[in-house]
Specification:
mainly alpha; 9 helices; Tetracycline Repressor, domain 2
Length: 202
């Protein structure tokens, strides 16, 4: 039976979503095309009706996953983001978690195309976070952006470092607890510094 254009688009989107989850769980090299298509409910041969190569799927799945992270971040202020991000739930839910924390190490060894998707996704995430952190009277947007980049880098690093330890180890939990407290303290300190720089009554 002939597949309609609409159905083909839905199939493609399902393959991309499945790939995004599996790549977050196992890394780009941890799952092959045949296994990925089987997980999505399709045959291996059907892959090339949708994608020219695995690299193309990797780029599209990365973009999709990064967009999901930004969407889940909307409405969260930086402190709320840190509480959710630097957590055991996020660390243990790798397949449903942030693409940045799951695949940044892999992306660093991939093509410019995938690195470009990561750069765009990280920039979008920073934009979402900045929209929630802007305060009336904030004049130094450069300083605010620098604070958010620092916060995001420390949050991602904390999750990656915790995941590198054995599951359930005391050190894995200690890394999250220490880093979460430190990041939240730095956010409070950073906002205080900005308020002092603006002066009283500003």
């Amino acid at each position: 039976m002939r597949v309609t254009k609409a159905q083909a688009e839905r199939n493609r989107a399902h393959i991309v979503a499945t790939a995004a989850r599996l790549f977050r769980e196992r890394g780009y090299d941890g799952v092959g095309v045949a296994e990925l298509m089987a997980a999505a409910g399709f045959t291996h041969g059907g892959f090339y009706k949708h994608f020219r190569s695995k690299a193309d799927l990797m780029a599209e799945a990365s973009a999709s996953g990064l967009s999901q992270t930004a969407a889940r971040t909307e409405g969260l202020d930086p402190a709320e983001f840190v509480e959710r991000y630097v957590s055991r739930e996020h660390r243990d839910g790798r397949g449903d978690g942030c693409t940045v924390a799951a695949l940044s190490g892999d992306a660093a060894r991939q093509s410019v195309g995938i690195k470009t998707e990561f750069a765009a996704g990280i920039e979008n995430l920073l934009t979402v976070l900045q929209a929630q952190s802007d305060r009336p009277g904030d004049a130094d947007r450069g300083a605010a952006r620098a604070m958010l980049i620092d916060m995001l880098a420390h949050s991602v690093g904390a999750v990656m470092l915790s995941r590198a330890c054995p599951d359930g180890s005391l050190l894995a939990d200690e890394i999250l607890d220490v880093c979460r407290k430190g990041i939240l303290a730095s956010l409070t300190h950073g906002y205080s510094d900005q308020s002092e720089a603006r002066g009283p009554g500003v």
